[in-house]
Amino acid sequence: MDSSLATDKKLLKIKKTKKDKPILSNIVLYIFLIVLAILSFLPFYIMMINATRTSNEIATQLNFLPGKALMSNYRRMMSAVNMWQGFKNSLIISTSSTILAAYFGTLTAYGFSKYKFKGNKILFWVVLGSMMFPAQLGLIGFFKVASVFNLIDSRWALIIPAIANANIVFFVKLYIDAAVPNEVIESARIDGCSEFMIFNKIVIPMIIPSIATMSIFTFITSWNNYLIPLVVLYDDSKYTVPILTAMAKGVYRTDFGAVYVAIALSMVPIMIVFAFCSKYIIGGLTAGAVKQ
Amino acid sequence: MKRMHLMRTITLLLCAILIMLSFTACSKPVESPAPAETPQEEPQEATEKTPEDFTGTLTFWHFNNDEGPKLAEAFMAKYPNVVVETQITADTDLAYQNKITSAIRAGSGMPDVFAAENAFVKRFVNLPGGYANISAAPYHAETLVGRNIPYTVDIGKDNSGNIKALSWQACPGGVGYKRDLALEYLGTDNPDEIAAMLSTPEKILETARNLKQASNGKVKLFVGTEDLYKIYVGSRTQPWVKDNKLMIDPKMMEFVDIAKTLREEGLEGGIRQWTPAWSAAVADDEHVAYAIPTWAIQWVVAVNAGDEAEAGRWGIATPIPYYEGGTWAGVSEQSQNKELAWEFVKFLATDADHLRDWAKATGDFVNHLDIVDELMNDSDFVNKTVDQNTYQVYGPMVDKIDGGLITQYDDQMRVAFLNIMQTYLAGNINKEEFLQEFKDQIQADITDLIIE
Amino acid sequence: MISKKIRKDHNGYIFITPFFIILSIFVIYPILYSIAISFTKWDGSIIPPEFNGINNYKKLVNDAFFRRSIRNTWIMWLGCIIPQMIFGLGLAVFLSERKLKGKSFFRWVYYLPNLVTMASVGALVFFLMNWPAGSVNRMLMTFGIIDEPYNFLENVFAARATISITLWWMWFGYSMIIFMAGIKAIPEEYFEAARVDGASKWQVFWNITLPCLKPIILYQVVTSVIGGLTMFDVPYVLTQARGNPQATTLTMVMYLYNTTFANYNFGYGATIGVGLFVIVMIFVAIAFRLINKNSAHD
């Protein structure tokens, strides 16, 4: 509370000159933000707490305090599935997918944004259009392609298609349109930079926030991806975390304790990635870059 | 000219990447099923092969991590030179079925042997390219299934009557009840007396009302109406679909009426099956009865009863014969090693020694009449969860089950019927609307079906 | 000069080529394949699809379930997207501009719901809203607000609202972050200039922030039209896969999924997919026109 009071005072000083009613509006705002924060955190918290409860407790009551079943839940989960191997698989797939998607997506976005080649608009609509087709249906043809390329039961089937991430292209293109002035590119050309050097050395640093933002989402989407890995991977030593989470429950046995341990564990890496990347979103890099 | 040049560059690039792609794909070790090391031209009947003579590797797909690996282990114990690689995919959101149909379509990647659950086995035995026809030479499955329980053999047949898959279990069903609650509020925990109390719809209602009164409304007879559905579905006299026509058996409408009365008078728990609350209610003191087919003693009662799993708190009564569940397995048409695959399937479903061991190790109700007879008369074979010999409980029912009641549409029927019935039970539509809604849904689900 | 410029523009092809190769193989081919099977009758087996002309499309136009699913999807999507955009934009502005303590904490916590898989969220919400023993029912009964447990998920309004609120809860933090990234791209000079001119906060928001966010708003609207109209997991888990009660929460993709994978009607499933594709395409085009037209005025 101390800290918020300090902020209120600061704001008070700033705003008094503008004849506003700052204290009240700030308190209202804080209450609102805190209520929303609780709402966002609560279900997440319940999932974490459930990981420490027995299946019966999870099924019969809403738990707010940790129980004692964490270790036994963990042991049952590990005896059902090899979760750490799953972590390794998921990390390999999600990390490489994200890197590929971010780099090639940005490359493509830049191509669309700064080169007015013939067919630019139509091809861009093709990119947009590819997002609009329901993934569940595309799966039928996707499986066919994957088996033609001998990618069934291979992690490559999940990594290579990441290059074609239309979402990144769309977002980053809009961002480049707004944040990268043509003059910067022209002046680099006059300085004798090659087109790829301009992209790698000048454009990428200017648009880091947009790449970081999209990378987070790509990583999380890839990490949580369930349907495609499930259909494409056969060998359970290649299974990813969401598949193993579903498996931990059992078919007839409904072991919710083991499932919640798996869910809680599976959220840890994405929380770390998010905490790490979110700095880049707010880093204020753009503001500086555009001023040049 | 420039455009031509550009197009060529792009094409070249495309080719280069395609080649790279296929190269990376090929360079990784592909786990193709091991080549058939056993000479296939060798006539089967001529030599009596011992289990040791079989060598090689099989892939086996199953949807249940609790069962699949154990089946493979049992086989490998008897066939020491064979390796069975079990690959599990849970059928959450139909994923297991999706995976199998995808692999069948792709024409590659199918395992040597794959399992199918009751809910979709009829569909799979009729799916072209799926299971090999094991009625044909060289398998001649008919000659081996004489001691299997007939209804399970019928379910494993396709629409032309060829056997495609075999099962190792039979799943007759009873009503599981909590003995302590029954004794306290109904005055008895004897299975026969409980069975008598539940033998007709009128008696079910009467018993439920008595229970409510005796417990001051605290205790309910059934955990939910869906458990009662299993019993009613198993006691119909005609299948859901006959001659491509939808048949709504009078039993089903009887079920709807009794479910409505139970709901309105607060005589059932209203809990839908396989929900967390449903699992948890196994251990509570408020819900007396569940539909318990053979496997559910282990997978519904014991796993959810916690420390009381072996305390004999439960009893099984058998008021109405029905069946639910079961798993089948067959040889994949794509298998490169069909002889060994068939040996595995044969072992699972017909090897009497294995089935005896399996029954003793897992408590499963196995699909072999000799073993059923043997265990029925084995006074030491008592299941601790229910304090009864499960073969004595379920055994008399096996020849009353009609395998002809099962169609490939049963799962669609069940989902549509129960979901729409929820809306009816909640009081949001009347019975006529319920029936109409059900027919509309089924027509949308199964477009070719004739619905009157 | 001019010829040099043209040559530079052709370099664009090189930039987009790797992307398009992969897109063609793994995305466009499957789409074309689906479009092809939408003209057939096929059960998804190795028996080849049987050409069926435009019969599937004729059926689609008169399909009561498809119409219901369009309506349901729109209702639930609007119930989610309007609050999602308001919260996302509002929070982004507050957390970017105001000198608030704990900004980064709030940003982190609001995004948490998006980390969990849809299926887990669906299962949790089902547990809360369940009849008769769901937590919400128990809470309401404990506080004496209701005497009998209320069957929320069998009431049309409550079931739809539950789905909309769940999706809003999952996605407002995402919108917030996207808007924040957009606000960060607005040159600081604009704000300074406005302050020097003595503009109020509201005027700054209306005349600077909002116009500069046009591309981001476009992105948000387009991606949420796509994401919203293809919604699947949450209603699938919450309504037992069939859109209870009476298919009032059945979404287009649920209908597609059930038709294809539960009922093995691959041909008609693909037709539903193409129908959905066309609908989404129309609304994305409208969104582009509306938003780009507005920005032309500025």
Structural class of chain C: mainly alpha
Order of strands in the sheet with most strands of chain C: 1-2
User: What is the count of helical runs of chain A?
Assistant: 16
What is the straight-line distance between the termini of chain A?
40 Å
Q: What is the count of distinct domains of chain C?
A: 1
Instruction: Give me the strand/helix succession of chain A.
Output: HHHHHHHHHHHHHHHH
Low-pLDDT runs of chain A:
1-19, 283-292
Portion in beta strands of chain C: under 5%
Q: CATH class of chain C, anyone?
A: Mainly Alpha
Any idea what the shape of chain A is?
A: globular
CATH architecture of chain C: Orthogonal Bundle
Task: Provide tags for this entry.
heterotrimer, A: 292 residues, 0% strand, disordered C terminus, B: 452 residues, alpha/beta, D-Maltodextrin-Binding Protein, domain 2, 2 domains, 5-stranded mixed β-sheet, globular, SBP (chain B), signal (chain B)
Describe the structure.
The complex is a heterotrimer of chains A (292), B (452) and C (298). In chain A, 76% of the residues lie in helices and 0% in strands. The two termini of chain A are 40 Å apart. Chain A is mainly alpha-helical and 292 residues long. Chain A folds into 2 domains: 2-50; 77-291, MetI-like (MetI-like fold). Chain B folds into 2 domains: 52-170 and 327-376, 3-Layer(aba) Sandwich (D-Maltodextrin-Binding Protein, domain 2), CATH 3.40.190.10; 172-323 and 401-445, D-Maltodextrin-Binding Protein, domain 2 (3-Layer(aba) Sandwich), CATH 3.40.190. In chain B, 44% of the residues lie in helices and 13% in strands. In chain B, the strands form 3 sheets. In chain B, strands 2-1-3-11-4 form a 5-stranded mixed β-sheet. A 4-stranded mixed β-sheet of chain B has the order 6-9-5-10. Chain C has a single domain (56-297), classed as MetI-like (MetI-like fold), CATH 1.10.3720.10. Chain C is built from 13 helices and 2 strands, in the order H-E-E-H-H-H-H-H-H-H-H-H-H-H-H. Chain C has helices at 2-37, 55-61, 64-97, 103-111, 118-129, 135-142, 156-184, 188-196, 201-212, 214-229, 233-238, 252-262, 266-297; strands at residues 40-41, 50-51. Chain C is flat. The chains are: A mainly alpha (292), B alpha/beta (452), C mainly alpha (298). Chains in contact: A-B, A-C, B-C. At the A-C interface, helix 1, helix 2, helix 5, helix 6 and helix 7 of A face helix 1, helix 3, helix 4, helix 5 and helix 7 of C. Chain C: Keywords: Cell membrane, Membrane, Transmembrane, Transmembrane helix, Transport. Chain C: Belongs to the binding-protein-dependent transport system permease family. Chain C: One of its GO terms (biological process) is transmembrane transport.
